[in-house]
Fold this protein.
Amino acid sequence: MRIMWWLIGLLCLNAACKSPIAQNIQNIKYTPAAQIQLSAPIIALDSVFFHQSATLRLTLDHPEVTLHYATAGEVITRQDNRYVAPLVFKNTQAIQVQAFHPSCRASEVQEIEVVRLNEIAKQATLKLTPAPKAPYDIGGTKNLQDFHKASTAFRAGGWLGFQADTITINVDFPVIQTVRSVGLSFLKDHHSWIFLPERIEVWQDKQPVAQVEIPLATSKQAAALKIKILSFPSINTTKLELKLIRTTKIPAWHPGKGLSPWIFLDEVLVNI
């Protein structure tokens, strides 16, 4: 009797091993760890804009993961600064961070910008030509001088939206100021047809002071907050003219190709 039950069990096991479910289990292929990309580090920043200091904390809860950072624009490696404690910034700075693991692919690089504020910008009077376009005109120039960084959820407010080939910002100071840099805070959100300007120019007394060209994106990128800083030899002045030159048409890779993009601005900064 025991032998009979043993034979029955063996036959059942053999049948089960030949079943489609069992065969599918045997055919499961697992992705090699070397092909798995880590998630990006979780960033906690107490403030993008600050007067005294800003503190940055990074986390990624995964065994054997190490977090590294470097100055923005440089290639990060495992030999770069390893994050072991919160980073404290006392000056305007841009860094990038990345997660590494012995077996997995490194995470995508994330860039963080922090800006030390100067009250000069709040003392100025701003004039916008043309005016921002409704419904992204609420708050007017006050939005550009409140030292509050708006979020990528642009419909929540805080942004001024423009649809013009050239946007001119006239900056008038009540007294002569020594100016050495200008910062402009933008939103980039290709999904919502919001692009960075093609070029930024700084003028004083009808003379060019500084300019920066911004390469046009060649593919869709994630929504991001961008601060563009233009530095130049110090000038004493009561007036500046800032010009934002828009990309004329949305590029061919975008669903809105050939149409006019938006420019979203939320802050004008001086001497940062």
About this structure: The chain has three helices and 15 strands. Helices lie at 2-18, 20-26, 120-123.
